[in-house]
Design a protein that fits this description.
By secondary structure, the protein is of the alpha/beta class. It is built from 8 helices and 10 strands. The protein has one domain: Vaccinia Virus protein VP39 (Rossmann fold), CATH 3.40.50.150. The strands form 2 sheets. A 7-stranded mixed sheet has the order 4-3-2-5-6-10-9, sandwiched between helices. The structure holds S-adenosylmethionine.
Length: 232
């Protein structure tokens, strides 16, 4: 579903490529780490230190790559659409390779990875099925696909992924709403099996970091799925 159905703010809408190109310079200072870090840390179905090689889909500035490296993942490749985001990821020196590509068609080798991650990017995809198929292609047998996303509840309440220009103007990045059933259907289509699902809720810990979010207390703000490519 197009986010436009739920938009209450009616800010200018830009494409992901153009929006992240503009946001890249201050993305790391403004992204809410509470969206993904607690969920990644809570996942029990992925043994991070045992991952030999990972591919970080829509790696952006490399926040997830840094986190994976801290968990003991040694080899990480990154893919993203936006060169300005990738420049920042390159500076972090945790990726083996970084390339500009669509995450639905990376060109990376089949069955080459124990782990695929896609963090805070699913809302920019009109259709989830191609990226789930690509993740399934990239994973070896038993490999995990970890998807962390901005919760559809927030999008459906009219709050999109957005950033502020230097002028203060708020800009929405083109977004789509995917219900959890769409993730389940895309994963099933790709032959992936669910290991784990978690949701993050705005709580007191979140408000200590971001007191302005008080009005959203108890709202679900993010989600994590861990899918597995089963053996044949
Ligand atoms: C919110 S950022 C998330 C970046 C990083 N994963 C993180 O958690 O900080 C979304 C990223 O998705 C990328 N992106 C959006 N659509 C994409 C696509 N079809 N293929 C590749 N990258 C895409 C954008 O360029 C941007 O870097």
């Amino acid at each position: 579903m197009d986010f436009a159905h739920f938009d209450k703010r009616n800010c200018p809408v830009v494409s992901a490529r153009s929006g992240y190109g503009e946001w890249a310079a201050h993305y790391d200072a403004t992204v809410a780490e509470g969206l993904d870090r607690p969920l990644l840390g809570a996942l029990r179905s992925v043994q991070w230190p045992e991952v030999r090689s990972a591919v970080d889909l829509a790696c952006g500035t490399g926040r997830t790559g840094v986190w994976l490296a801290q968990q003991g993942v040694r080899v990480i490749d990154g893919v993203d659409l936006t060169p300005e985001m990738l420049e920042r990821a390159r500076a972090r020196q945790v990726y083996r390779t970084l390339q500009v590509a669509d995450i639905a068609s990376t060109g990376l080798p089949s069955s080459g990875y124990d782990l695929c991650t896609m963090v805070l990017a699913d809302e920019h995809l009109a259709d989830l099925r191609p990226v789930y198929r690509e993740a399934a292609r990239l994973l070896g047998t038993g490999g995990s696909f970890v998807v962390v996303g901005f919760h559809p509840y927030f999008l459906m309440n009219g709050i999109p992924t957005h950033y502020h220009r230097a002028s203060g103007e708020a800009v929405t990045i083109e977004s789509h709403v995917h219900l959890f059933s769409a993730h389940v259907a895309a994963a099933a289509d790709a032959g992936l099996r669910l290991d784990e699902c978690r949701e993050g809720v705005i709580d007191d810990a979140w408000l200590r970091d971001k007191p302005k979010w008080q009005k959203y207390l108890h709202w679900p703000v993010s989600f994590a799925f861990a899918w597995r490519r089963p053996g044949v």
